[in-house]
């Protein structure tokens, strides 16, 4: 089964009932082609990042659909979108491969989670408990590194 996301932008000056009719026509074309519509996101009117066919704003709509046999369905829907006068821009993206990759990454994270939690607990248990220092009390001195501790009065060698 393949999963697609179809995004298209309608003219911003389109009345609400005409916009809904255009969305329904696209949904009908998809279902006639054998697709099942999973999700419809109507974002409403938004500003475009650049002018498209003379418009600076557009009505955004995204439809996610799945289909068993996509022989020509995407091509036919895009042909209808190209000739529709109310639609100023469209794009179809196949997202099932991305969803499969996302599920794989989530399962790998789920497998690593117990190991990471055990490692973090071991590190926390091995660390010495922090002793609170009273305000204004002198800070304890840290020990010198082994090389400096062996000969404290010797000056560093110069080249």
Structure, explained:
- With 159 residues, this protein is α+β, with helices and mostly antiparallel strands.
- It contains four helices and four strands; from the N terminus they run βαββαβαα.
- The protein has a four-stranded antiparallel sheet with strand order 2-3-1-4.
- It is elongated.
Q: What's the SSE blueprint?
A:
Layout: E1 2-10, H1 16-32, E2 36-52, E3 55-67, H2 73-83, E4 87-94, H3 96-126, H4 146-150
Antiparallel strand pairs: 1-3, 1-4, 2-3
Characteristic key phrases:
4 strands; single chain; four-stranded antiparallel β-sheet
Question: What's a quick, concise take on this entry?
Answer:
The chain has helices at 16-32, 73-83, 96-126, 146-150, and strands spanning 2-10, 36-52, 55-67, 87-94. It has 159 residues and is an alpha+beta fold. Strand 2 (36-52) and strand 3 form a beta hairpin.
Largest sheet: 4 strands, antiparallel
Shape: elongated
Strand line-up in the sheet with most strands? 2-3-1-4
Radius of gyration: 31 Å
The N- to C-terminal Cα distance equals 71 Å
Overall mean confidence score, pLDDT: 84
Question: Structural class, please?
Answer: alpha+beta
What portion of residues belong to β-strands? Answer: 25-35%
Query: Considering DSSP H and I runs of 4 or more, what fraction of the residues is helical?
Result: 40-55%
Number of helices: 4
H/E element order: EHEEHEHH
The low-pLDDT segments are none
Q: Would you report the number of β strands?
A: 4
